[in-house]
UniProtKB/TrEMBL annotation:
GO terms for cellular component: cytosol. This is ATP:glycerol 3-phosphotransferase. SUPFAM superfamilies: Actin-like ATPase domain. The keyword Kinase applies. Residues 4-262 form the Carbohydrate kinase FGGY N-terminal domain. Belongs to the FGGY kinase family. Residues 272-457 form the Carbohydrate kinase FGGY C-terminal domain. It comes from the Bacteria. InterPro entries: ATPase_NBD, Carb_kinase_FGGY, Carb_kinase_FGGY_CS, FGGY_C, FGGY_N.
């Protein structure tokens, strides 16, 4: 029997499951897409019941796969010899769902982190400067619709008798990890410190649900889960698709935090960037850092030692490229890359993808997306290239703020996510930042990070030093000195484009 940890990464667009052995090798994997809906302007939702079924499907695919001699993964009859020793969970953060405690029936759809339904409520709350400052000091987060707090407040008002039912403890409010654990166990209702810190309801210094914020938003503490460490056995599985009963659920952690852990972010000088629909630039620190408005302060993880994190959340990166692709009528992402490669390196177009305002480091809900520098000679290729460059520049905006706060020099930027497979993009990022980019050989780094935490919880590994020895191969992109002036000049033009974007309100 091959002993493995089942690591599930529930993201925005798909559910991935990995089988991780004690040497840190991925010996099986499965991925299933998730649907997402846009009921009206600003609303972004997902089906919580579909999410659970797709989890079961991805687990079945992973369990039904084995590593062949050539290193590829195929279905094989011998796969039933895998013994799952623990389950690890990483999840899309900030998305939230409410359900009935007695039946487990969802009372809302999953309200996505992308959803802007509470924008007007956030605007109203921000007018109270004292409360706005208190929220940031307590939670490390700027009042913004991305975070669950204001969406939960609105949802309780819309559920019949919602507040009274909440006070009686009849309603559960959970981020996606809580929903997953509830359904995989006999209704265990918990969350971990990393996910709790993203709700904008959790005091990250005192590590308790903040009663002042709960009272202001009309959210009863009775609706909220118990908070446990990220590396911790919270219960045993029930029969869940092909997953047998009695298996320890041994870790849960927000996906961006999990990626940082998977990159070895518990070591000094490591900063990671996850490139996806949106992007996250994050670094871990052993002590609570300075709270500042440009970036979020959060709890990175609790693996017996609590680590805080500095993070900048960028709303539109991969989604910005895809938006421009659709606007230009380009068939797929491969064709988009080919089109962008046809542009002149000195083309004048800059795209600021403030398609739902700007996230870190600006936090400007009123900003609107713009193309700057359009000329009669502008081609579709120029606009395509500007979409890719907008990713580079937005990551740089956040990277520089984080670099100011870290006590040690940043040795390299570890990267993951689909866009990182674009070698041109990664080399350009290195040239712009002047820092080596490190791209690991395992794409599913969030699942790996969660798997490492589960392994610590069940005693597979004893220390993070042991985990560091498992580090796999990586591709390095070293900054080229001769490109520095070029990229700094373009970065200055980007800064001007951002100013124009924010003035166009």
């Amino acid at each position: 029997m091959r002993k493995v940890i089942l690591a599930i990464d529930e993201g925005t667009t798909n559910v991935k499951s990995l089988l991780l052995d004690q040497q840190g090798n991925v010996i099986g994997k499965g991925s299933v897409p998730l649907s997402i809906s846009f009921p009206s302007a600003g609303l972004v939702e997902q089906d919580p019941l579909e999410m659970i079924e797709k989890m079961k499907d991805s687990i079945a695919l992973a369990v039904g796969s084995v590593v062949c001699a050539e290193g590829s993964i195929d279905s094989a009859e011998g796969s039933n010899e895998v013994a799952i020793e623990a389950v690890a969970i990483s999840n899309q953060r900030e998305s939230v769902v409410l359900w009935e405690r007695s039946t487990g029936k969802p009372l809302t759809q999953v309200m996505s982190w992308q959803c802007r339904r509470s924008e007007s409520l956030c605007e109203t709350l921000r007018k109270d400067d004292a409360f706005s400052r208190y929220v940031q000091k307590s939670t490390g987060l700027t009042l913004d619709p991305m975070f669950p707090a204001t969406k939960v407040s609105m949802a309780l008002q819309q559920i019949p008798d919602g507040h009274a039912r909440a006070e009686r403890g009849e309603i559960c409010v959970g981020t996606i990890n809580s929903w997953m654990v509830w359904n995989m166990t006999n209704n265990v209702f918990i969350t971990d410190a990393s996910n709790a810190s993203r709700t904008q309801l959790f005091n990250i210094d005192e590590q308790v649900w903040d009663t002042a914020i709960l009272d202001r938003l009309g959210i009863s503490a009775a609706t909220l889960p118990d908070v446990v460490p990220s590396s911790h056995v919270v219960g045993l599985s029930r029969e869940f698709g092909v997953l047998k009963s009695g298996i320890p659920i041994a870790s849960q952690i927000g996906d961006s935090h999990a990626a940082l852990y998977g990159h070895g972010g518990y070591q000094k000088g490591v900063v990671k960037a996850t490139y996806g629909t949106g992007s996250s630039v994050m670094a871990a620190m052993p002590k609570l850092p300075t709270i500042r408005s440009e970036i979020s302060t959060t709890i990175a993880w609790d693996d017996a030692t609590l680590f805080y994190g500095l993070e900048g959340n960028i709303t539109h990166t991969g989604s910005a490229i895809d938006w421009v692709r659709r606007m230009l009528g380009v068939e797929d992402m491969e064709a988009m890359c080919e089109l962008a490669a046809q542009a002149s390196a000195d083309q004048s177009v800059f795209f600021v993808p403030a398609l739902s305002g700007l996230g870190a480091p600006y936090w400007d809900l009123e900003a609107t997306g713009i193309f700057c520098g359009l000329k009669s000679a502008t081609e579709r290729a120029d606009m395509a290239r500007s979409a890719f460059e907008s990713v580079l520049f937005q990551v740089a905006d956040v990277f520089h703020v984080i670099a100011e706060e870290l006590p040690e020099k940043i040795e390299y930027l570890s990267v993951d996510g689909g866009p990182t497979l674009n070698d041109w993009l990664m080399q350009a990022q290195a040239d712009l930042l002047g820092v080596t980019i490190r791209r690991g050989d395992v794409a599913e780094v969030s699942a790996m990070g969660a798997g490492y935490l589960a392994g610590l919880a069940i005693g597979w590994w004893q220390t993070t030093e042991e985990l560091a020895q498992l580090e796999g191969q990586a591709t390095l992109f070293t900054p080229r000195q001769e490109k520095q002036a070029y990229w700094q000049a373009r970065y200055a033009q980007w800064a001007l484009a951002v100013k124009k974007c924010r003035l166009a309100q």
